[in-house]
Amino acid sequence: MIELRRVVLDVLKPHDPDITIMVKSLAEIPGINGVNISVYEIDQRVENVKVTLEGNFPDIKKVKKVLLDIGGTIHSIDEVVAGKTMVEEEETLQERNQG
User: Fold this and answer.
1) What's the whole-model pTM score?
2) Which residues of the chain fall short of a pLDDT of 70?
3) Count of domains in the chain?
4) Running DSSP on this structure, what letter comes out for residue 87?
């Protein structure tokens, strides 16, 4: 079975619990070796966070459950890496010429 190596999510979450609780809960999921959470927008009631998960895990069902249990919602799945090796995103010629 092909496993996921990295998943990057855009998540909307309430202020409480804070991201330290959230990151520990996600890191406890079997197959996840590391989690990074960055807050990029704060509103009166909620925060938008970028969640990066790395490891070897079959899907994001358990991730969705943890996020749902703390009141979070996945806005989008922004990046997924799967396979035997980690493949980094490369800049295209069009992207280079835009800058």
Assistant:
1) 0.89
2) 99
3) 1
4) -
